[in-house]
Amino acid sequence: MSEFYRIAVDGFSSCGKSTLARQIAEVLGAVYIDSGAMYRAATLLALQNKCIINNQLDTGCFRPVIQHATIEFNAGNNHLLLNEQDVETEIRSPEVADHVSEVATHGFVREILVQMQRSYSEKASVVMDGRDIGTHVFPDAEVKIFLTAEPRIRAERRFQELRENSVDISFDEVFENVKKRDEKDQNRRVAPLRKADDAVEINNSYLSRNEQLDKALEIIYEKIGDLS
Ligand code: DC
User: Fold this and answer.
1) Is a pLDDT exceeding 60 seen at residue 179?
2) How far is the CA of 202 from the centre of ligand 1 (A)?
3) Where do the structural domains in the chain lie, given as residue ranges?
4) CATH number belonging to domain 6-227
């Protein structure tokens, strides 16, 4: 095993991946990386630069923009910094949610973000959540967890989250958005969402946060021992 370990937490949108990955990182003293936030930041960047036309990414417009962008996480509060600006609120907007699947289908966008994701893991042990972490970013990750939950339950969680952030949106819109993204995430040509053969699945539809953390830690300790 190398100096640092990698724990991959993959699964559908609004499954609670980030909650779980953050909890694991806290218990183990590792760095938490939200890869979805990075795709959201790329989408925000495309929107800011008017590189999305008729719901399609204009690749000629966006390629030089993303090549020169920096995407980092504030070590204190874990907020995403896009070109050194804190955009944690902006990346959670419905406008970004509506376009992120389109931006995430482009190979050059994924290559740039995957390179950044791998480079973070060279400096520290990481717990990274996303869609392709166990299958593509870290195919040899020490631990791979695949998190699932029923679509309606996921939509309820996302709806709650948006309401808490004062976003004006109906439950039906959120539910549609969740289903649309599941479909796109699973069927896209580049790095589709699928469970890695060696990933362990946790269905958290009816689990509390503590129960899912206990399950995950059990899996981690079984695979690589007590890392804390
Ligand atoms: O986890 P999230 O809902 O914040 O992710 C936002 C979008 O980014 C989602 O539609 C899929 C995409 N994504 C991806 O393609 N690959 C990842 N590793 C993480 C997210």
Assistant:
1) yes
2) 19
3) 6-227
4) 3.40.50.300
Start-to-end Cα distance in the chain:
16
Q: Using CA atoms, how far apart are residues 72 and 92, in angstroms rounded to an integer?
A: 16
Q: Is the pLDDT of residue 118 over 90?
A: yes
Residue nearest (by alpha carbon) to ligand 1 atom 1: 36
pLDDT at 1: 47
Q: Whose C-alpha lies nearest to ligand 1, atom 12?
A: 36
Phi, psi of 16 (to 5 degrees): 90, 20
pTM (predicted TM-score): 0.89
Pocket test of ligand 1: the residue of 100, 118, 158, 188 to mutate, having most ligand atoms within 8 Å of its CB, is: 100
| Nearest alpha carbon to residue 92 among 60, 55, 44, 49 | 44
Spacing, Cα 182 to ligand 1 middle (Å): 10
Q: Alpha helix locations (H) across the chain?
A: 17-28, 35-48, 59-67, 94-104, 107-120, 151-164, 171-187, 209-224
**Nearest in space to 52 (alpha carbons), one of 92, 91, 89, 101:** 101
Considering the chain, what percentage of its residues have pLDDT values greater than 70? 98
